[in-house]
Amino acid sequence: MILRPQLQDLKVIGQYSGRIMLGLGLAMLIPLLVAVVFQEFAAALDFVIGASVCLSAGYLLIIFCFTRKELTWRHGMVVVSLSWLLATLLGALPLYLSGHWLSFLDACFDAMSGLATTGLSLVQDLDHLSFTHNMWRHLMMYIGGQGIMVVALTFLVRGAASALPIYVGEAREEKVLPNVVQTARFIWLVSLVYLLMGTAALAFSAFSAGMPLAKSLLHGLWVAMAAWDTGGFTPQSQSILYYHNFGFELITIFLMFFGSLNFSLHYALWTGKRKEIFANIETVSFFISVTVLFSLTAFGLAASGIFPGVTSLFRKGFYQVISAHTGTGYMTIGPEQFAQQWSALSLMGVTLCMALGAGACSTAGGIKILRVGMIVRALLQDMKRTMLPRSAVIRDKIHHIKDVVLGEKQLRQAALIMLGYIFLYLLGTLVGISYGYPLRLALFESVSAGANVGLSCGITAPAMPMPLKVTYIFQMWAGRLEFVSVFAFLGTIFALIRGK
Amino acid sequence: MRTLICLAVVLALSIAGNAEAAQQVSAAELLQQPEKYDGREVIYKGEVIGDIFIQQGFAWVNVHDGTRAIGVFCPQPLIEQIEHKGNYNFQGDQISLRGVFHNSCAEHGGDLDIHAAKITLIKKGATIAHPLEKDKIKTSIILSAATLFLAIVHLVVKRFR
User: Fold this and answer.
1) Percentage of residues in chain A with pLDDT exceeding 90?
2) Do B128 and A334 touch (CB under 8 A)?
3) Could A52 and B146 be called an inter-chain contact, meaning their C-beta atoms sit closer than 8 Å?
4) Is A312 an 8 Å CB contact of chain B?
């Protein structure tokens, strides 16, 4: 028998969601400040409206959903999923009011893409968008990459015990420090350090090339935000190609790589355990995967003869591979080049990079290389077993911060999530094919949405069919939250309708 | 010396290009049929957007034709006539350029670009006005007042709880 959630359960969910809405409303004050500094007053009005709606919604939920009931695991999961949807709807409001998005659905698409650190976009005439709206697009990406809940845990939730369900609900299984609030604060510390370094390096690079100082700082900040959070939004329509700057490419590769590392690994590096980067199963698997998939991509590119020399092939091929594998989505080629010029083999290499993803407990999406490493390791051990005598004892151990014995439960969990992603990728592919897109392109774009990458072969455009937009929004949402909290949310809705 | 050689190459290309009439193309055409135009002289028109980046006597200009932007590499003197670059506050200058299209430029790490030998200003850019909309002002005032009211209610209710 399915039990219908009680009023008190809904109040707990409403109470926490209200706090998230308050946080989102306060975050909108940052673009508002940018509007004042750069005298973009028409754009400022969009954020006065947006922030007011967020704050009002937040206060209403907090006032009317007051309860002393404690947050349970199920509540936490529902709060996470619901808050992501509400943040998408409310975050889209100032975007839509700017007039640069054709419909509210398109604005929601970009808001979800930003929050889920995907980077696919339906914006119109991006090159004439205000600094104010660009700041909001990149800020949403930064907030989403850090984790909306991490932001909330840092600033809005006091009790560490009650915070655990919502931390885990946002696809962060590992606690870097014993306390989740401390973990959330550590994530902020690391992110801000890299953000400052990245901003300084990119701003210097842009300024040296002739961009005005204030604009260099803003572009540096935005590109660093989106690279570190493996998001992929850029303030100009040509992505990284706009800058025509090799330095920009190198700095973004550095930021994308470190942004895709597990925060536990960051903590190990932070505390002086530098050897961990060479021993950890995640980094080892990542290097192997990048090497194999880049070779595959490069072989395809060489065979098709698109690039005039080895240097160009390496520069373009490696950048797209790293961008795909870290889940960022920055491009130094046009979407049409992917679709028309890259061979099926090269496209498959990049698609596999996107599908696998990077570090767990990082800002990257996709299956995650830790899970892939665990499954491959288990497979190898099974093969070894078949070759050794039955009496031989094989211990399945991996090194992830410390030596860990691979258990059946962990493997099952990893395999289930991998399966979930494969279904998610297939869903978008099927919808894409049903609208007449070729299989390889439909698969590419679907994996890009489901793994929160943002590379595009041109399917994502304002003119694409509405059901495909909705499918990609769902994929970005479910892919970012890694299914569990999405299932909890859908289960709660089902229980509300059919429960007793 | 390097600049002089590059200028000479660009000049030679432009002369060679004149022998065969350059075709006017859109960004969509270049991106859809790159093999047709690769290495050939083309005429491309569009709005200058964003920033101009200078590199050792040469400049990178991004030109948007309404569908896509393409990077244009040219000698620095050619950009002197460009005054407005498109952004939130400005409609950029409309230019027409003649140059060689590269699907994957060997000189620039495989970038898709046009090496321009001639740039002509078609239309000067202008300021874009962003008037404050009355409806938005009214909505902002009403919603801000509602937010303030709810914040006060929240504080009062919190005290009594």
Assistant:
1) 65
2) no
3) yes
4) yes
Structure tokens at A117: 């650190």
Q: Which helix (H) or strand (E) holds B48?
A: strand B41-55
d(CA A314, CA A78): 45
Closest CA to B6 of B64, B62, B59: B59
DSSP label of A239: G
Point out which residues pair with B113 in neighbouring strands: B71, B102
Please tell me which residue of chain A has the smallest CA distance to B48.
A127
Query: CB distance A209–B34 less than 8 Å?
Result: no
**Residue A30, number of CB atoms within 10 A of its CB:** 14
Of A479-488, B12-21, B48-57, the poorest mean pLDDT is in B12-21
DSSP B108: T
* Furthest CA-CA distance within chain B: 87
For chain B, state the CA radius of gyration.
Answer: 24
Phi-psi region of A17 (alpha: psi -120 to 50; beta: other; left: phi over 0): alpha
Q: Which residues of chain A have a CB within 8 Å of the CB of B136?
A: 42, 45-46, 49, 97
Instruction: Report the distance separating Cα A2 and Cα A484, nearest Å.
Output: 18
d(CA A489, CA A399): 34
Residue of B nearest to A305 (CA): B104
SS3 assignment, position A456: coil
Q: Which of residues 96-155 of B touch A (CB under 8 A)?
A: 103-106, 108-112, 128, 130-133, 136-137, 139-140, 143-144, 146-147, 150-151, 153-154
Could you give the CA distance from residue A86 to residue A73 in angstroms, rounded to a whole number?
A: 20
H or E segment and range at residue B75: strand B69-75
**ipTM confidence score:** 0.87
pLDDT of residue A59 exceeding 60, the answer is yes
Give the tens place of pLDDT for each residue, B111-154.
Answer: 999 999 999 999 999 999 999 999 999 999 999 999 999 999 99
